[in-house]
Design a protein that fits this description.
The protein is α+β, with helices and mostly antiparallel strands and 157 residues long. The protein contains 6 helices and 3 strands; from the N terminus they run βββαααααα. Strands 1-2-3 form a 3-stranded antiparallel beta sheet, covered by helices on one side. Helix 4 crosses helix 6 and helix 5 packs across helix 6. It is flat and about 55 Å long. The protein starts with 7 loop residues before the first strand and ends in an 8-residue tail after the last helix.
């Protein structure tokens, strides 16, 4: 296997409302193999794949920065970054905003935005309907928008 070829690939397939997860790889003889895997393994492998992609992009940014002229580097260095106290405050605000959501809203919001699951996948995991997931994520987003717009909100019901 060449260095730029991933060691494995993961995919999901939904047929008749049943989602199955698969991992594909080449065995020692170079033969492509694909096996069904549990959802937890799929999520772990997908997280690893995303982490690897982030590291590759980070390396690409490093190479890009090393090719910049002295003038470009100086220009980028002069741009002020967010002070640590402001970054910590934003992080605490986000934690407070998420904590004020109901458990269901927070869980579904994070599954959608952090883990990249779609509404149907979340509905399957939560054993509920697609519209219920859509509604709770929409309500969570509205509450977070209100929170960060300065209007604030009360603990959700």
């Amino acid at each position: 296997m060449s260095d730029d070829t991933p060691a494995y690939a993961v995919r999901e397939e939904t047929i008749d409302g049943t989602t199955r997860y698969y991992a594909a790889f080449k065995d020692g003889n170079g033969t492509r193999q694909e096996i069904e895997i549990p959802r937890a393994v799929y999520l772990a492998l997908d997280d690893c794949r995303k982490h690897e992609q982030r590291q590759i992009r980070s390396g690409e940014r490093h190479v890009e920065n090393s090719r910049l002229s002295e003038e470009q580097l100086a220009e980028r260095a002069s741009v002020s970054s967010t002070p640590l106290d402001v970054a910590v405050s934003l992080s605490l605000d986000l934690q407070a905003a998420l904590a004020a959501l109901t458990d269901t809203q927070r869980r579904r919001f994070l599954l959608y935005h952090e883990h990249g699951l779609n509404y149907e996948q979340i509905a399957a995991v939560e054993d509920c309907s697609h519209p219920a997931v859509l509604k709770s994520i929409a309500i969570a987003q509205e509450k977070l928008e209100k929170y960060f717009s300065g209007e604030g909100y009360k603990k959700a019901s």
